[in-house]
């Protein structure tokens, strides 16, 4: 059998049909969702084709399907609902979020509707009234950053399809972060910010007192249920033992049981270790996002 790409890769696969079939071979193009004695490929219509590994004639990785503006907007909408801060307000096509000033994601305005409009002055006033420097989150193609305007905090937004084969072994899941979870996580984010979610569910995972993470399931405007991973951290003396992957697998299994069909994670562009981990789990780059200060 040919060497197999990673789960999550978009592939073109040719395979043998049962003896006597005319034609004797068939093809499928889609995302590889499972490997082993049986391969499963999900096509663009959402149908899963199961193929015996012994029948595979050839398999070729393909470049990711083009990402459209509406795809970016749908993912960003689900992500904003999964990390919304404790106070939020719509202004034109912008969602403004406030979360005590803890994390830029929970304290920035993000453009989520087509043609969000020029509301920079009003957005600035909203944040200044709450004692925060005004900040925009600007995903690729959803807002035109002026040519002379600096940005920072570049995030790679990675995505993949979900499958139902992940394990929860060794992982404890709770609806709120307990004292041990909060102790292990390096950032002192208030609990009300961590647990905030709009029209969705959130869960907190931990592994043997050495690894913690968070997942939120929310729905995009197109109806897709997304699982968002965040706050993943492994104690320094417990790294390189596969615990981050064990934790993330359990969080994604929880999300899949709640109807999530796709998952995303936001990784700082210079965090090579995290990017390598998520790529090994089948995540690929979907788009990028940056922050722009209005100060």
Automatic annotation (TrEMBL):
Keywords noted in UniProt: Acyltransferase, Transferase
Domain N-acetyltransferase: 143-295
Family annotation (Gene3D superfamilies): 3.40.630.30
GO function terms (MF aspect): acyltransferase activity, transferring groups other than amino-acyl groups
SUPFAM superfamilies: Acyl-CoA N-acyltransferases (Nat) (SSF55729)
Pfam families noted in UniProt: Rv0428c_C (PF24553), SH3_Rv0428c (PF24551)
InterPro entries: Acyl_CoA_acyltransferase (IPR016181), Bact_Acetyltransf (IPR050832), GNAT_dom (IPR000182), Rv0428c-like_C (IPR056935), SH3_Rv0428c (IPR056934)
Name of this protein: GNAT family N-acetyltransferase
